[in-house]
Amino acid sequence: MNDWLEAEQRIERAQQLSESQRWEEALAEIDVALSINPNNAMWHAHRGYILEELDRFEEAAQAYGAALELEPGDRDVAVALGVNLARLGRFSRALEIFGELAKVYPGFEPAYCHRIGIYAELGQHDKAEEMFYLAQELDETSPHSFFHMGVSLAARERFDRAIYCWQRVLELSPEYIGVNRLIAQAYRAQGRLDLAKEYYLREVRDDPGNTDLMYELAELTVEAGELAMAAAKFAQIVELDPEHVESHFALGKIWLLRDQPGKALACFEAIQSITPGEGDLPQFEAKLGEALVQLGRFAEARKQLDIAVEKDPGTTDTHLLLGNCLLAMDKLGEAGDVFRRVLASDAENAVAHHRLGICLIRQGRHAAGLDHFLHAIRARPDFGPAMYMAVLAHLHLAQWREARSMLRRAMRRYPENADLRQLGKRVWRYRLRHSLHRVFGLLEGPFGSRHA
Fold this sequence. Notes:
Elements: H1 3-19, H2 23-36, H3 41-53, H4 57-70, H5 75-87, H6 91-104, H7 110-121, H8 125-138, H9 143-155, H10 159-172, H11 179-189, H12 193-206, H13 211-223, H14 227-240, H15 245-257, H16 261-274, H17 284-294, H18 298-311, H19 316-328, H20 332-345, H21 350-362, H22 366-379, H23 384-396, H24 400-413, H25 418-427
Helix pairs in contact: 1-2, 2-3, 3-4, 4-5, 5-6, 5-7, 6-7, 7-8, 7-9, 8-9, 9-10, 10-11, 11-12, 12-13, 13-14, 14-15, 15-16, 15-17, 16-17, 17-18, 17-19, 18-19, 19-20, 19-21, 20-21, 21-22, 22-23, 23-24, 24-25
């Protein structure tokens, strides 16, 4: 077969494969054709298009560059080259190409509209607006101009105007890819969650297999407080992509919020099997430790919480969780040190005062423990667990009047609490030097440590 005829047949085959979106096969065919005739600009341009579809933008830019060398006047190829250079972050060269196009073809709208996006990326929003108005003078119906202008406005948190621009894109080109998602993100940034959800659902309908998009929608559902629905969406993502670690993690956190630590632990263990080390998931060890604490596996929990505190020493919640874990293990001195570290940076932290008070009580330092219970109550007047413990501490110190006063205060706040009523029946029984060891066996109080 004649080489030139074979090259033409290869190109025809590449076009058919491209129409079927069989990109790798199409690329193989066009590469053979170009090996026979490397001087055909159109073939190089077609190769660039295929490489774009494969997200191989560096090679696509090279292919478009080769086409432009062979046929310098092809403005569509020049636009494709400029777009790919912008994708690669080569903004200066892309601007040069579009600037040259505007000089040669001053009425060519793409030479202006694509510069809007580049200037937005560079943070040069005044120039982006200048290009937008120049593009509008040439073509008021260009969806690309409105799209890029919306990006510039959103970068400046001018979300209402950005949304207007993107809605114009949809009016002009209803199938424009990714616009519904951008509108959803803008509404979400404004806290308008119902509208954000509406546009996310539109985008999901257009791109149902996009797990990153589904993840954003699931996150939005969490923000809206719809935990059951969010759990279902994260589970759907995991079903589609079993190695989507962010969804495993998000699902595990929801199970913790819903008091199902066993299910949470299964999610976290799945992550460990996918990505040992979990270095890219903030608070992974903290949440794993929390699940283990809830399951009563304190030694394992401590190991994870020690790692979490080392990674992020400024996280109060993790310190409190570590302190609670150590307290459950009866390591009173170490637990007390953790709660003191919290108070060193947050002197009015009611939970830290309360838990430190319990440590001190268990060490026999009842007056010091009482001081921390009272401090917790001053910081948070409705803090029932601290009130309960303050009554017990007053009793141990034979401060009967103070014990009764604190009990009345607690009962006014929580009149239906059965444990407080039971404590009221016991108050009169305790007298000077009466042992309170049996009472202090109830140190967690009626509210439970998990809600303190």
